[in-house]
Design brief:
The complex is a heterodimer of chains A (about 900) and B (about 110).
Chain A lengths: L9 H10 L2 H22 L1 H30 L6 H23 L1 H30 L10 E7 L6 E2 L4 H10 L3 E15 L5 E8 L3 H5 L5 E2 L14 E4 L1 H8 L9 E4 L2 E8 L14 E4 L14 E6 L5 H18 L9 E6 H42 L1 H9 L4 H37 L14 H27 L13 H40 L10 E6 L9 H16 L4 E7 L9 E8 L4 E10 L3 H5 L3 E4 L13 E5 H7 L2 H4 L3 E3 L4 E8 L14 E5 L5 H10 L2 E7 L6 H11 L7 E4 H7 L2 H35 L1 H9 L4 H30 L15 H27 L3 H6 L2
Parallel strand pairs in A: 4-9, 6-8, 15-20, 17-19
Antiparallel strand pairs in A: 1-2, 1-10, 1-11, 3-4, 3-7, 3-10, 5-8, 6-9, 7-8, 12-21, 12-22, 13-21, 14-15, 14-18, 16-19, 17-20, 18-19
Helix pairs in contact in A: 1-3, 2-3, 4-12, 5-10, 5-12, 5-13, 10-13, 10-14, 10-22, 12-13, 14-22, 14-24, 14-25, 15-20, 22-24, 22-25, 24-25
Chain B lengths: L7 H12 L6 H12 L5 H13 L3 E9 L5 E8 L1 H18 L7
Antiparallel strand pairs in B: 1-2
The chains are: A alpha+beta (about 900), B alpha+beta (about 110).
Chain lengths: ~900, ~110
């Protein structure tokens, strides 16, 4: 029996060899032998051989058929092959990149975290920028809405509110406006829906809905006859109040609710996102029903309009001048020479210079952090590129084009930044919650801030841009890899040295950026401490404040108001731990009324508008204000006694020399008053501004008209001096409700909190800036540490050599540290220069600190240098502990 | 690969692989098909079917030991994968469903 291969026939074998792959040939030969063995014993060797040749022919035929079929499967449509290749290359690059990142979890984690911090911080602040700066007024074409205000002249500042006469004059004569409206804020007490509740209202004139361009989502707006005195009592609810107080009752329209014990018919509900035109957090809208009293001079009416379609800003400006001239003619004696009308865009008014600067600066700060984060990641990628030089060299040697190598690096960095961006969104969500929790009250649109579609788009764009930026740096570096890396043990010293230079530059940039950020944070911090140290003119410590809005239906005159307050004060003073209690028409540092004052004597008559504060006799003592001259109020200054007034130093400066003030006669709220004392200035509303001229008068002696206005617009306040207010709040509340069970409490808080609230925006800025500054510093420290470690790693051999030749440990540490520190110090110098330019942007936000404060600049420089020194000292010490023998053997 | 559409020949080859268990070589498959299905199939056609099934993940293959019958060469053996087994079962289910009496088909 022959088992020699020759038996299946030369022809068959030759055929198969010609057409089959090696594996297929082996398989076919084995099976053909078996076939031959099966047939030959039965039908003879020749028949078996023929069968084998025939099978071999079919094997070849089928192999050919299959090959053609598979070619067809692979390229079914002869499309543009280049594009298909690029797309499949891209997919492969991403898959490869993902594998590579998974293989080095340490690198990936550090890079991801750094990027996520940078992108997250930017996304969080951008969402604030988007809402607060770009879309603060939730009205269509909000940039066509302008607000008319009043400039007091002579450094008295501007008020974005008008008196009744002025507001009505504009409403009747403002030709530049398509629609014009007047609003005033008001407080109501809601009863009949559980506990009495304080409700914030906006009283609106007709034309209001045309100005804002928003109409109720449910029901209707106000009809013209509803804005007339004696018209039906109607209200429109905001969406928020409708949900909070009425559980979003769909049948609310037409329902009657009790506000200030008067039944009001609900005629509509505003859409979500509407919070009132001037104030935010409005609950209800009600008709204004303005009846102009020419004697009323308080500038408490918000007057604004929607510009007619073709009116430009310049035209509005000339209209303002024109109307001013006509107003002066129509009302002689009301306007002094320095005073004038002003206008401002609603959006600009809502945002304000301070807020705008603050938010843009924060945006700049987080942008800087992102740059630092990018520098760190680039540095990491460069280090990685070095570690992979051999791989890249092999790929290049095997024919990978430059585009392929670049694509590979780009895919990896894009994967990193996209994943970093996704993680960053999580950080942004958390950060945003923190920002919203810390944010001061009254920032328009802040409640609307969230991760909206534009914000997500921003995060994606930032991630992609960062990925491309970082990737380009990495790709350039990868392309410089040469085939020298293939040599066994090839260190490619020149190339690595070049990369150290690149990383040195990155460190330099990081240090510079950190200096800029920290100088900003330092200046704001110093400014904040100065603001906190401002002499308020009173002592907030140990004082507790309780505010109530007194509805004018019950408290529309002085007698009822003072009776209520004195009865509450009596109960408060009787409480254990309370040493004194006083009341006032409004708290210090909170907006209060201004009234027209006429100084009758001495000298010629002078007229101006000043701040007016009606207080209980002991209120000024309880506050701890200090008298400069004369006396304060006492219990003898009652309703029946001759009207008296105390004025502040600013008032004296405005109208008198100091000696003349005492005994002067003034007329402010009706009765003529004699000035009996001069008070040291008390800071008002804004700690940054000097006190405005102010008149204090006993609450019991205030004119009925003034009391009505004050109660209508402002919250009356009790100041309670108490050892420890904890646990007493319920007793305070009871003291009010014993006197008037329907009277809700607006707010209770320590007076220190009132003082802090006035600098809440500063505190917010300081916190964010200090947080971002610290973040920048940590990132820079990580960067310095990474680069110095890397340099040490590369020079282990050299360090070992130096140690073997007798270099001292200190010398080695110094050598390593000094190389890193040179770059840091250059960066610090550049940063100081940049900060001196950039800090001028902060000037408007600073108080009592110059933008170029040398102590802060020097402090920041030292701080960064010290942090960098520590960061580079760690790897340097490790280098000095290297065993020379191990180092010399190191590759 | 969801619900691979087995051709008739492909199905016969896979059934043969299943029946021969781990002894399935192309020659054994050819002999079995001849014997049971009275079907003359060339080795080339069987190879093509097996290769295609292998690309689809229906069969797996390995080289056996070198044997005298194969002239001292190692023959390639085939076995069904889970997917292959599922494919022939599905094919059987379809046939049986189609063969049910007319009133049962609704």
């Amino acid at each position: 029996m022959s088992q020699r291969p020759v038996e299946i026939g030369r022809l068959a074998r030759a055929l198969l060899r010609a057409g089959l792959s090696r594996d297929a040939l082996e398989r076919a030969l084995a099976d053909l032998y078996e076939l031959h063995q099966r047939i030959a014993p039965v039908r003879g060797a020749a028949a078996a051989r023929r069968a084998c040749v025939r099978e071999a022919a079919f094997i070849l035929l089928w192999a050919a058929i299959e090959r053609v079929r598979r070619m067809g499967e692979r390229r079914p449509i002869p499309g543009p092959p280049r594009k298909a290749t690029m797309v499949s290359d891209l997919g492969r690059d991403f898959r490869y990149g993902a594998r590579a990142l998974r293989r080095s979890p340490g690198f990936t984690a550090v890079a991801l975290l750094t990027l996520a911090l940078g992108i997250g911080a930017n996304t969080a602040i951008f969402s604030v920028v988007d809402r607060v700066l770009l879309h603060p007024a939730p009205y269509p074409d909000a940039d066509r809405i302008a607000v008319i205000g009043w400039d007091w002249g002579g450094g008295g500042g501007e008020t974005w509110a008008l008196s009744q006469v002025k507001a009505q004059f504009w409403k009747e004569n403002g030709r530049a406006f398509r629609a014009f409206a007047i609003t005033d804020d008001a407080q109501f007490v809601l009863t009949g829906e559980g506990e009495p509740e304080q409700v914030a209202g906006e009283l609106v004139s007709d034309g209001y809905f045309d100005v804002i361009g928003v109409t109720p989502a449910l029901g209707r707006g106000f009809a013209a006859e509803e804005d007339r005195l004696g018209g039906p009592a109607v209200v429109i609810l905001t969406d928020r109040f409708w949900r909070r107080a009425f559980g979003a009752d769909p049948d609310i329209v037409g329902r009657r609710i009790s506000l200030d014990r008067t039944a009001h018919t609900v005629v509509g509900v505003m859409p979500p996102g509407f919070h009132g035109a001037e104030e935010s957090n409005i609950d209800v809208l009600a008709p204004l029903r303005l009846v102009v009293d020419p004697r009323s001079q308080g500038h408490n009416y918000f007057a604004f309009g929607r510009l007619a379609p073709e009116v430009t800003r310049d035209q509005l400006a000339s209209d303002v001048d024109l109307l001013e001239a006509r107003f002066v003619d129509a009302y002689p004696g009301v306007v002094s020479e320095r005073q004038s009308f002003r206008f401002i865009g609603l959006r600009d008014l809502l945002v304000g210079d301070f807020l705008r600067t603050a938010v843009w600066l924060l945006f700049g700060a987080v942008g800087t952090i992102l740059l630092i984060a990018c520098a760190n990641v680039t540095s990491l990628l460069l280090g990685r590129a070095d570690a992979r030089r051999r791989e890249v060299a092999v790929r290049t040697a095997l024919g990978a084009g430059r585009a392929r190598v670049v694509g590979q690096v780009m895919a990896e960095s894009l994967l990193l930044t996209l994943a970093g961006g996704a993680l960053g969104l999580l950080f942004a969500r958390v950060g945003l919650d923190a920002i919203l929790a810390l944010a001061p009250e009254g920032v328009p649109g802040l409640d609307q801030v969230g991760l909206s579609v534009p914000v997500l788009g921003f995060a994606l764009a930032v991630s992609v841009l960062t990925g491309v930026g970082v990737g380009v740096a990495g790709a350039l570096s990868a392309l410089r890899s040469d085939l020298g890396a293939l040599r066994e043990g090839g260190r490619g010293q020149t190339s690595s040295a070049g990369r150290i230079q690149v990383r040195g530059l990155l460190i330099m940039g990081e240090s510079a950026f950190s200096v800029v950020l920290l100088v900003g944070a330092g200046l704001l911090l110093a400014s904040f401490f100065r603001l906190r140290a401002v002499d308020l003119g009173f002592e907030p410590e140990g004082l507790f404040a309780m505010e109530v809005r007194l509805p004018t239906d019950r408290y529309g005159n002085t007698e009822a108001t003072w009776r209520f307050e004195s009865q509450v004060l009596e109960r408060l003073r009787a409480l254990p731990g309370v040493t004194a209690a006083g009341s006032a028409a409004n708290l210090p540092l909170v907006r209060g009324p201004n009234l027209g004052v006429t100084v009758l004597s001495p000298g010629e008559r002078q007229h101006d508008v000043v701040e007016f504060r009606a207080v209980s006799p002991d209120f000024l003592d309880i506050l701890g204000t200090r008298l400069v001259a004369g006396r304060g109020f006492d219990q003898s200054d009652g309703a029946a006694s001759p009207p008296v007034a105390v004025v502040n130093e600013a008032f004296v400066r405005r109208f008198f020399t100091n000696e003349e003030a005492l005994g002067a006669t003034i007329s402010i709220d009706g009765p003529e008053r004699v000035v009996v004392g001069v008070l040291r200035d008390v800071r008002d509303m804004d700690l940054r501004r000097d006190a405005r001229p102010t008149v204090f008068a006993p609450r019991s002696q205030a004119g009925d008209g003034a009391t009505r206005v004050m109660n209508d617009v402002f919250a009356a306040a009790f100041a309670i001096r108490v050892e420890d207010a904890r646990g007493l709040e319920a007793a305070f509340r009871r003291a009010v409700q014993d006197v008037d069970p329907d009277q809700p409490i607006l707010r209770m808080r320590p007076m220190t909190e009132v003082a802090m609230a006035s600098i809440a925006r500063d505190r917010f800025n300081v916190r964010l800036f200090v947080t971002f500054g610290a973040l920048a510093m940590v990132l820079t420290a990580i960067g310095v540490y990474g680069v110095v470690s890397y340099a040490v790693g590369l020079r282990t051999h050299e360090i070992g050599l130096r140690m073997a030749l007798g270099a001292r440990r200190g010398g080695v540490v110094g050598l390593v540290v000094s190389r890193g520190m040179v770059m840091v110090l250059i960066g610090v110098a550049i940063g100081l220069l940049a900060a001196s330019a950039a800090s001028r942007l902060l000037a408007g936000m600073l108080f009592g600190v110059s933008p170029g404060d040398p102590a802060i600049f020097a402090g920041v420089a030292c701080l960064i240098a010290t942090v960098a020194l520590v960061a580079s000292h760690v790897p340097a010490r490790r280098a000095s502990r290297v065993d020379p023998m191990i180092a010399l053997r190191a590759d | 690969m969801k619900g691979p559409n087995l051709g008739e020949f492909e199905e016969l080859v896979l059934l043969a692989v299943r029946r021969l268990d781990r002894e399935a070589t192309a020659g054994a498959i050819q002999a079995l098909m001849q014997h049971e299905a009275r079907r003359r199939a060339t080795l080339g056609a069987i190879y093509a079917a097996l290769d295609r099934a292998q690309r689809k993940g229906l069969v797996e293959s390995w080289l056996g030991e070198a044997t005298p019958v194969a002239g001292g060469r190692a023959r390639r053996h085939y076995a069904l994968t889970h997917a292959g087994l599922a494919a022939v079962r599905e094919s059987r289910r379809i046939r049986e469903a189609m063969w049910r009496a007319p009133e049962q088909t609704t």
